Amino acid sequence: MKRFLLLLLLLAALWLAWQVEQNTGHLNNLQQAAPALAAFSAQKSPANGERIRYIVTGSPTISAAFINLVLAAYRSPAANTGQALYSLGVRYGIDPVYALAFFMHESLFGRYGMATATRSLGNLRCIAGFPCYQGYAAFSSWQAGYAAWYKLIRSLYVDTWHLRTVAAIIPTYAPAADHNAPGAYITAVERAVDAWRAGKVEVEP
User: Fold this and answer.
1) 106 and 11 share a domain?
2) In the predicted model, is pLDDT for residue 62 greater than 80?
3) pLDDT digits (tens, 9 = 90+) for 147-173
């Protein structure tokens, strides 16, 4: 009887050891899969699902005439350049509503800051082939500044770094390390995009 009990205890110990080994293996597998699982969860989360609406590439969602209405409403020195902003967006495959939103956030359409001197839609840093003014690229016209911004977003952010949404682009475009507030910037751009796509000319702060 004692031998039988000892045999049962031995079998139980062996089974317990096997279970621990199996569970440890499962734990290791879960740890290895954690980044992929987190990424999958993020893709499916409601907040991120909402961000998908703000992919910068694609066809225009506003017209050249509407862009001119917005620039006029804000008394922009770049008034009547809506067709250029629109056509360049088509050329580079970037929805011009995003260029307009960046333009608003950076300088209120050229009314304030460095853009008053540089005619730069996005306050771009110095670029080879263009004059450099106090650390920023300066352009001979608003249209030239538009083209430089579109080229930067398309060739570097989209095609090279594969960043396609407003939420992905802005933390690199306007990093917190340079005294920016990426979260507020993202919110401002997305709010402007929503308003203009709904046909509202002026955006509430």
Assistant:
1) no
2) yes
3) 999 999 999 999 999 999 999 999 999
Mean predicted confidence (pLDDT) in 95-109:
98
* 35 token code pair: 């980044």
Confidence class of residue 51 from pLDDT cuts 50, 70 and 90?
low
Non-local CB neighbours of 90 within 8 Å, separated by 6+ positions: 59, 60, 96
Domain span holding position 89 = 53-197
Residue 19 belongs to some domain of the structure: yes
Beta-ladder partners of 125: 136
Give CA–CA dist 200/205, Å, rounded: 13
Can you tell me which residue has the tokens 């796509």? 197
**Per-residue pLDDT at 17 exceeds 70:** no
User: Are residues 61 and 23 both part of a single domain?
Assistant: no
Structure token digits, residue 184: 């507020």
**Does 203 reside within a domain?**
no
Q: Which two tokens stand for residue 169?
A: 């682009």
Instruction: Tell me the pLDDT band of 56, cut-offs 50, 70 and 90.
Output: very high
98 and 115 belong to one structural domain: yes
Q: Are 115 and 107 in contact (CB under 8 A)?
A: yes
Query: Is residue 115 exposed (0-12), middle (13-18) or buried (19+ Cβ within 10 Å)?
Result: buried
Specify if 180 maps to a domain. Answer: yes
